[in-house]
Amino acid sequence: MIDERAVVAVIDDDQSIREALQGMFETVALKAELYGSVEEYLRGSKSRPANCIVLDVRLPGPSGLDFQAQLAEANSQTPIVFITAHADIPMSVRAIKAGAIGFLTKPFRDQELLDAVRNGIEHDRARRAEVQALTALRSRFASLTPREREVMALLAEGRMTKQIAGQIGISAMTVRVHRNQAISKMGARSIADLVRMADKLELQSSKGQSD
Known about the structure:
Elements: E1 7-11, H1 15-26, E2 31-35, H2 38-43, E3 52-56, H3 64-73, E4 80-84, H4 89-97, E5 102-105, H5 110-142, H6 146-156, H7 161-168, H8 172-186, H9 191-201
Parallel strand pairs: 1-2, 1-3, 3-4, 4-5
């Protein structure tokens, strides 16, 4: 079942197709926002960013492929499902290589589009969860002292306690104190978990952790 909170933006210059797709999405409790062009989508007041965009290839103004490139340039990762009545292999290959979730030729089966949109929504949900988790991780990392950050970064580089102590000029016992404080503040379950967090944060001791 598609998450009822998910939003799909439908961008197609054919009003009858927009309305038909809206009706189909409503049958699976999916909210659809309808737009007749890329410009209308960009002007529209959206309650929240779409989880997936259903995008016609041929539109007045910028084409669907042009808009896909524009979104990529803006670092937008909203999944796109293309629909078109005039497909050719180079066009579909270009869209898929640029990251489109699907490329469907009209007329298509409703289930084909629903499956593609479901895939896009799940992809977007996973990406948002990952971004949220990384934001929380960075917030916890910001609570560490400069020395705790330094010890965490050196642990991530594979240094042992005695090696860290010798490198930064403190006792092994003090290293353990900083390490345990970092584990506690980061919410890590173990040193290995702390190292995995450091990898996600792409820590390097040479960067300096004193900011």
